[in-house]
Design goal:
Radius of gyration: 19 Å
Strand order of the largest sheet: 1-8-3-6-9-10
Distance between the termini: 26 Å
Protein name: Helix-turn-helix transcriptional regulator
CATH class of the largest domain: Mainly Beta
Number of strands: 11
Keywords: DNA-binding, Transcription, Transcription regulation
Domain HTH araC/xylS-type: 162-259
Length: 261
């Protein structure tokens, strides 16, 4: 193993014009930080195990197990994987499928996971009338019908929102109120509340809950216990954390991850 390798040096997706090419990556063999980069092809990042957090378009995207984040071609992005992450990448030629023009997260079916795993074994420059090309076509046809999921956190390019976001990402246990944040940022509480909605589309409380969900999914996917994650996020009890998690995704952490094993 050589954990100093950068995954961006492993493969250039733009070296082929094929509709879709796939790669598997085990992050025990590569650096966890993937620096900011861009490519012509769009990219679907699927977490088979562990999790990865992406930054793109002034938003933070979490990819928990068996979900995928879609990053259209030409959008600069970076990523950080958990130590145990096992990821599947699908690089898609622009125009090959009717996919969103903005980043989003998809629920990914077992069929798509198996098709991507099969495409990994194909050459990068398969002929357009080959079996690999037909596999790629079926994969893309399935992908465009996958439901979207809400695993993103809007951050905004506004300097005051960025200061608050960077602080809370680094110290998610910080329970400062909106009024306390307004004083830190030299704003009135009302002005900060309006700024949050205008820049992120979320109220301060809803935004912080979404941040906690993203951090929780990342921690739980890397093997942390529910108790540790609840403590790191500043919850007074495990039950309070589980209530937040269930309200956000519709089930408890134990059930969420057991369904994805």
């Amino acid at each position: 193993m050589n954990a100093s390798r950068d995954v961006t040096s492993l493969f250039d997706p733009d070296s082929t014009r094929c509709a879709a090419v796939a790669r598997l990556l085990d992050f025990t063999e590569y650096e966890a930080e993937v620096p900011v980069h861009t490519h012509r092809k769009g990219q679907l990042i699927l977490a088979l195990y562990g999790a990865v957090t992406c930054r793109a378009e002034n938003e933070i995207w979490i990819v928990p197990p068996h979900c995928g984040v879609w990053i259209p071609g030409g959008i600069a992005h970076s990523a950080r994987a958990t130590w145990n992450a096992h990821l599947s990448y699908l690089f898609i030629e622009p125009g090959a499928a009717t996919l969103p023009e903005q980043c989003c997260t998809f629920a990914v079916s077992p069929l798509i996971r198996e098709l991507m795993n099969r495409l990994v074994r194909e050459d990068n420059d398969y002929p357009p009338d080959s079996h690999a090309a037909r596999l790629a076509r079926v994969t893309l046809d399935e992908l465009v019908n996958m439901p979207r999921q809400n695993f993103n956190l809007p951050v905004s390019a506004h300097s005051k929102i960025q200061v608050m976001a960077e602080t809370l990402v680094s110290h998610p246990q910080d329970r400062s109120t909106l009024n306390e944040w307004a004083r830190r940022l030299a704003l009135s509480e009302r002005s900060l509340a309006r700024l949050m909605v205008r820049e992120t589309g979320l109220s301060f409380g809803r935004w912080r809950q979404q941040l906690h969900l993203i951090i929780a999914l990342r921690g739980l996917a890397s093997g942390e216990s529910v108790q540790n994650v609840a403590h790191e996020l500043g919850y007074e009890s495990v039950n309070a954390f589980i209530t937040m998690f269930k309200k956000s995704v519709g089930c408890t952490p134990a059930l969420y991850f057991s369904e994805r094993k």
